[in-house]
Amino acid sequence: MKVEIFSDVVCPWCYIGHTRFDRAAEWFRAKGGTIEVTMRPFQLDPDASSDGEPVIPAMQRKFGPNATQMIDRVVGVAAEDGLELRYDQAISAGTFEAHRLIEVATRQGRGKEMAERLFRAYFTEGRNVGDPAVLAELAADAGVTDTGEGEGEVREQLARARSLGISGVPLFLFEGKYAVSGAQPEDAFAAAIDEVAERTGQTPITQLAAPADGCDDGTCAV
What we know:
Number of strands: 8
Shape: globular
Strand content: 5-15%
Mean pLDDT: 92
Oligomer: single chain
Number of helices: 8
Distance between the termini: 36 Å
Strand order of the largest sheet: 2-1-5-6
Order of helices and strands: EHEEHHEHHHHEEHEE
Largest sheet: 4 strands, mixed
């Protein structure tokens, strides 16, 4: 099963949704299913500077007195999922280069790891994910070699997101045609995965007993 996750690395609900989906995906894999996840870009603020600024003042300008209440709510929800969001030290910055790095990582089979490292850097460590020097460190942490490529693919996928009518994230696109929006509960993601598996003929078999002696992959213990 192929799943594309449209998200932005400075979106708290993307971090929460990614974490919940990952748990549901592992549950599906544990019962014999296969899921291939590809991270796709979305920019909440395409005009944000890579210089960075403290996120709380930026949110206060945008949302006014509601900013504090919004932050408190999402911090509490994230904590229930084991995630620490440190808005007191988070830095608002442009994310295009971060998305380009995820694209490079995807080509190296480490897109998921790169996205997770960026989420943690932004939300927990107060790192500026628009700073090239910071991105270089994070790439190394994730085992990714930045080849400098990926800009064209990111722009193409951003345009694709617009053409699909995606105006908010996270959005989980299954097999290019079934969509789930928002940071759904883990059981809702699990149900969606099962439904898509059934619709596309990818439902894993159910084991009715513990495995016993047998042969597989051309090997037979006798």
